Amino acid sequence: MGGNMERRLPLCRRMRRERHRQIARLQDIVVETLYRIFPRAVLHGGTAIWRCYSGNRFSEDVDAYIEKNIEKVERLLEELERGGFRVIKRRMTQNSIYCVLSLERTLVRFEAVFKKVNGIIREYETYEGSLFNVFTLTPEEIVREKIGAYLQRRKIRDLYDIFFMLRHVAEKERLKPKLGRLLREFPDPVDEGELRALIMFGAVPSKDDILEYLRTVVR
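Above: the chain's sequence. Below: its structure in token form.
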């Protein structure tokens, strides 16, 4: 019962760290502004898991897929600046835009890949606990992305996200080949100790707990 009560609390009440609360508020402004300019944007990555799938791992970055339209990207940044943000860092390539934004001495990172992706509609939970519709990836697509991310950068948060999102996947059978490869090639995480600081509430599984769960899925 305690877990359900905790989940029903507004997001701001479930977060233990003040820094996380400040970043979450800014993320909401970025996401709301993003959808005004790019109404078909598709959220993915850790923030999509946390906000759209009731995750309990804090994520600093706002990651999205958007159409390639430089004029609209400029408008997005102008709107954010009008709202008080400063663009501390900005890197635009042929395929993506990456920004570090600052407001009230708090930083938030935003990265958008220029790629047409068909998302599904899910409710996004704001810092204050209200909900609005966004596009995001299916649980299966998120797990596939996260397996690739873990093998590439070996971050414990990606391994945890695989573990967390598998409970949302109805047909786990389709993921067995990918999960089997992850288990066969498994490299240890480079930052295992960092997970505790990122879990906002509840038990923190170890790397071995997660691997044991993945083995039961693959069996």
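Residues 1-6 have pLDDT under 50 and may be disordered.
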